[in-house]
């Protein structure tokens, strides 16, 4: 419950942080007329819209299971992340459109140092906020919050590149650097948008846990499978912050239902304790269903 509240609060305040950064970046563009700073401000608009979508999705994902959604609403966060990826791509295309106009009629920036100072302050706010979002998102397994944090961190990196490039443009007087930097920003944003969409689609398609986590799950099961004969057909999938774990447990055919249930409870409790927000389903089978020869000292995986 505490993690749920933390994630929802961060998603809510991300909206206002995004609006503040947007105001600063638009002010930087307004005083300079720089197309590169315009591209930076345009991405901040996407940040605000994405923050709104993430806040909505996180609220939905924490709703309890109901009759129509017996497995919960965890995947709602992936829809938010996909939307954010699409918005990132749209922003990149709008930037490229603006670059075309600037390339045809390049102009010298007005009040460059003031604009760069304002933009630098906005980037510092973004960097601190993105670091907080990413750390909390990973701790509480929130895809929407993680996508939001990574997107903002991308904004920080591109803003740093724009800042360095525009300083060079001011010093050298090379006006073509302004639209050139905007193109680089747009291409980077396109790549990030594609990455966000790809990872979110994987979540919607029930991707399994990474290999390292699978081995950890196997170790937990083996350490708590005393009294069983074999474990096979281990399957996992990730839905938002929840890890679904399913496997078959082979026991002696003569074992009572109560004794088999004790083993299942022990394994389930161990998994849920060491893998927070996990949901465990165990299929108990008689020894005739074993896939390996029975009689080894340890409980084997098939």
Would you give an account of this structure?
- By secondary structure, this protein is mainly α.
- It folds into two domains: 2-204, Alpha-lytic protease prodomain-like (Up-down Bundle); 211-289, Alpha-Beta Plaits (2-Layer Sandwich).
- Helices cover 68% and strands 10% of the residues.
- It is built from eight helices and three strands, in the order αααααααββαβ.
- It has helices at residues 2-32, 35-61, 76-104, 112-140, 143-172, 177-204, 211-223, 257-274; strands at 230-239, 242-251, 278-286.
- The chain has a three-stranded mixed beta sheet, covered by helices on one side.
- β1 and β2 (242-251) form a beta hairpin.
- α2 (35-61) packs antiparallel against α3 (76-104), α3 runs parallel beside α5 (143-172) and α3 (76-104) packs antiparallel against α6.
- The chain is elongated.
- It starts with a helix and ends in a 16-residue tail after the last strand.
- 40% of the residues are buried.
């Amino acid at each position: 419950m505490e993690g749920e509240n933390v994630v929802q609060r961060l998603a809510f305040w991300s909206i206002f942080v995004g609006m503040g950064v947007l105001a600063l970046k638009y002010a930087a563009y307004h005083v300079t007329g720089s197309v590169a700073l315009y591209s930076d401000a345009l991405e901040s608009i996407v940040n605000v819209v994405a923050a709104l979508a993430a806040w909505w999705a996180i609220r939905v994902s924490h709703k309890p299971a109901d009759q129509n959604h017996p497995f919960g609403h965890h995947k709602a966060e992936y829809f938010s992340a996909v939307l954010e990826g699409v918005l990132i791509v749209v922003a990149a295309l709008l930037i490229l459109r603006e670059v075309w106009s600037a390339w045809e009629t390049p102009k010298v920036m007005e009040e460059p140092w003031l604009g760069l100072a304002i933009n630098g302050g906005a980037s510092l706010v973004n960097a601190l906020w993105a670091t907080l979002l990413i750390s909390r998102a990973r701790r509480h397994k929130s895809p929407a919050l993680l996508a939001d944090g990574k997107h903002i961190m991308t904004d920080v990196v591109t803003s740093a590149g724009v800042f360095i490039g525009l300083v060079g443009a001011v010093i050298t007087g090379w006006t073509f650097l302004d639209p050139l930097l905007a193109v680089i920003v747009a291409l980077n944003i396109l790549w990030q948008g594609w990455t966000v969409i790809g990872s979110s689609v994987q979540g919607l398609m029930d991707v399994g846990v990474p290999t390292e986590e699978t081995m950890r799950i196997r170790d937990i099961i083996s350490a708590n499978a005393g009294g069983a004969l074999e474990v096979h057909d281990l399957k996992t999938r990730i839905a938002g912050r929840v890890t679904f774990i399913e496997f078959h447990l082979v026991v002696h055919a003569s074992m009572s239902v109560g004794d088999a249930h004790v083993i299942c409870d022990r394994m389930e409790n161990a998994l849920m304790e060491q893998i927070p927000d996990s949901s465990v389903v165990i299929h108990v089978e008689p020894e005739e269903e074993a896939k390996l020869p029975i009689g080894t000292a340890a409980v084997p995986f098939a």
